[in-house]
Design brief:
Blueprint lengths: L6 E2 L36 H4 L28 E5 L5 E5 L8 E4 L3 E4 H13 L7 E3 L4 E4 L3 E2 L6 E2 L5 E8 L2 E8 L10 E2 L82 H5 L5 H35 L10 H31 L18
Parallel strand pairs: 1-8, 9-12
Antiparallel strand pairs: 2-3, 4-11, 5-7, 6-7, 10-11
Helix pairs in contact: 4-5
């Protein structure tokens, strides 16, 4: 095995995106000197949506607790040599469940370059390829330079997990504790290893629910070319370069729902004009028609907003998909969606109330609205 030169870094190696002021999400927290947890704690809107507060914009100022990636607020850890699995990382203090432990740092590269590097590493005899998926277009390569998170081993029963956060407009990956971890315990997380074919690698995590092989849950996994335990290539330290770890490979949703009857995609719209003609009260008719007009306006506004702002933003930031939509546009979309739902609720409530409480015309007196067949 060829030893790879490794450079320890603690910064996110990326071509930084300039965050526009309109895209900065500002929380509503207010710092209370008598309550230190009031400064962007668990109830902070940004924390709940996995967004770090932006310095100089957070209402809690220097007291803000939601800048852990930016301030490198890592838990105390320690490198150690495992038995048969290369290097590992220990908790060097008691770690509470949910705590941010360390950021997975490295060089951000495209998926195409990741594949090229994977082959290049293999040709150079470098079997330690620490490549993890960042998003649909990019990966983090910590093979030659990265944080100590690269030494965290895989386990089928992990005590940590990876989470994606938005930090100053960029997607970052952190390792978080899934449960309370005692000092001296090895840190592990599930690589979600994707098997690309070829020889299989035994999983050496030792968990009671171990799958037996890395990538055993991948499609196309077949019982061929198994590496024996005595083969030194079995260790996670020496895993093949094809073992790129797409920790959040998007899962395709099944088109068919087998857990119950499929729900219709399209709902029939209420013909408010037709319903209004059954009401004898002119005031009731005008009320229903007014809410129908508001619903049409809200629906039209929502459609135009998607066409003019949301869709162009998705295309412009196709690397991040819908996650790349600016916060200002997302807020407009949420507000417009709420207005549409409110308009629909008002219309349906008005129809039910007026049908139940106001006199109605005889069926032969009512006429269908334009474009509707006569009853």
């Amino acid at each position: 095995m060829i030893t790879t030169k490794y450079y320890w870094i603690f910064m996110f190696m990326h071509l930084h995106i300039k965050q526009e002021e309109d895209d900065i999400t500002i929380c509503e927290c207010k710092y209370n000197t008598n309550d230190p947890d009031s400064a962007c704690g668990e109830r902070c809107l940004n924390v709940l949506t996995s967004i770090e507060c932006t310095p100089h914009y957070c209402p809690c100022s220097v007291h803000c607790k939601n800048q852990r990636f930016q301030k490198h607020e890592y838990a105390k850890t320690k490198l150690f040599r495992t038995e048969g699995r290369g290097w590992g990382l220990l908790a060097n203090e008691d770690i509470k469940a949910g705590r941010f432990i360390i950021e997975y740092c490295g060089e951000v590269i495209s998926w195409n370059e990741a594949r090229e590097r994977s082959l290049a590493y293999a040709s150079q005899g470098i079997n330690d390829a620490y490549i993890i998926s960042l998003n649909a277009r990019e990966c983090i390569d910590a093979t030659k330079s990265g944080s100590q998170a690269r030494f965290i081993n895989h386990s089928c029963e992990p005590n940590c997990e990876t989470r994606k956060w938005s930090v100053l407009g960029e997607v970052r990956i952190g390792i978080f504790a899934m449960r309370d971890i005692s000092i001296g315990t090895e840190l592990t997380y599930d690589y979600n290893f994707q098997w690309y074919g070829g020889a299989k690698v035994h999983c050496l995590c030792g968990a009671t629910s171990c799958c037996g092989f890395l990538g055993a849950k991948s499609r196309g996994f077949q019982d061929t070319d198994v590496w024996e335990d005595i083969d030194e290539r079995c260790s996670l330290e020496d895993k093949p370069s094809l073992s790129m770890r797409p920790e959040s490979m998007p899962k395709k949703r099944s088109k068919n729902n087998h857990n119950g009857p499929s729900r219709p995609l399209n709902r029939e719209q209420v013909d408010a004009k037709f319903v209004a003609q059954f009401l004898a009260s002119k005031e009731a008719q005008e009320e229903i028609l007014k809410y129908e007009e508001q619903r049409e306006e809200a629906s039209s506004h929502l459609h135009l907003l998607y066409k003019d702002e949301v869709e162009p933003s998705i295309k412009e930031n196709e690397i991040y998909g819908i996650d790349g939509v600016p916060a200002s546009v997302a807020e407009k979309w949420i507000r417009a969606s709420c207005m549409k739902l409110k308009a629909e609720f008002n219309l349906h409530s008005s129809i039910i109330r007026n049908i139940a409480c106001t006199p109605q015309r005889a069926p032969d007196e009512a006429q269908p609205s334009e474009g509707e067949p006569k009853p």
